[in-house]
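Table S4 entry, N-acyl-aliphatic-L-amino acid amidohydrolase.
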Amino acid sequence: MVPTRPLSEVVSEFCGHALLLRMVRIHVVIGGVGRLVPLLVLLSALSSPLAAEDPSLIISRFQEYLRINTAQPKPNYRQAADFILAQASSIPLESKSFEFVDGKPVVILKWPGTNPRLPSVMLYSHTDVVPVEQSKWDHPAFGAHVDQEGRIFARGSQDMKCVGMQHLEAVRQLKRSGFEPVRTVYIVFSPDEEIGGHDGAGKLAESEVLREMNVGVVLDEGLASPNEKYRAFYGERSPWWLVIKATGAPGHGAKLYDNAAPENLFKSIETIWRFRTSQFDMVKAGLKAEGEVISVNMAFLKAGTPSPTGFVMNLQPSEAEAGFDVRVPPIADPVSLERRIAEEWAPISRNMTFELKQKIAVHDHHGKPIITATDSSNPWWALLEEGVRKANGLIGKPEIFPASTDCRYFRLLGLPAIGFSPMANTPILLHDHNEHLDKAEYLKGIKVFESIIKTYTSFVGDSSKESFRDEL
Ligand SMILES: [Zn+2]
């Protein structure tokens, strides 16, 4: 399914298909009313509403997707893409698979809207999952076993094969019901999110393909909610990977002296831990949500002089290092955090240096926090709430995602991107052993997406305000 023709040709053919359909309709109309009537009868017969599908078939399609092993570091992307493309043709939906990087397909399905000039709705999910420690699972991680309580066990059942399939099933059901979207819907399946998304969402975001899709809003992943309210995310914390290093005079293990490297490092670790505690206390006290504070966790600690039996024990080392995973919310001040690192966590006065091995931007090119608006300036937020409400669902207040998702690539372009995985009354088990999702909750999520897609694709707002933001 990989295009052998120039990408631009394939893209414009794919994205211009709706225009072709419009031209056919115009041609029929000018051909005379006499010919139009039988055609309309035929069309209405073809699009007449069908009864809802047997839920066991819907669950078995979900199981089929879960059984494809797309765990990093060797995801079977080919099998996943073939499965998605087969689903698309059974609905039917137009489909294309783009390989911006060899062996890493981005599969895009299209449901053309009646007004292709309006910005489209992009339903986005990633196809890869994190690895498993099978011995810690009660069921095979790629078996999609359903237990007596109706829980489906599989890696990806929450993160996020559930959402990708719910997008597909919602569109399948809406098409069966005869619903016609005004806006075009794209369902996108992308690789590599679990390893940073550079070859998936990153490449898509900078491509002509995305530009041609004229996206108005992106729905990507959220998190399960342990209570009855769904969660929706408008921003996420940026990962900073910090390594601090202390140096000092080496010395005999028996000697007491000031400013040895381990001593200097431990002073810093104490300072960092006090900061960590102050942030965590605000979460524990209920003053802030997890995504609203700066988290700091130690990733490694390195010092000592190796020997054949372990470490030289009568020597104080001249270097000591520690690594931290720091997560910075978009509402924090990155400049003051960096000053804190330089002045308090790795001060030169204590022979300390630091390096940020990774530093994902907290602000955009204009110096503004990379977030999606949740007020009246962004109609998509209120429409999401409306869609959920119409499906008899409840939704909590907007949150910041504590870790990273592919949303950041789209938010950086200025596109509204909302993290939303409809899983209420569900323990948060992404990346955990025994990841599972209740069958009924999965089916309910499809209904919620049907309602959201209806609400989104029927919305005809002021399209001049929602064109692709070129200036960024
Ligand atoms: Zn995910």
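Residues 113 and 182 are 5 Å apart (CA to CA).
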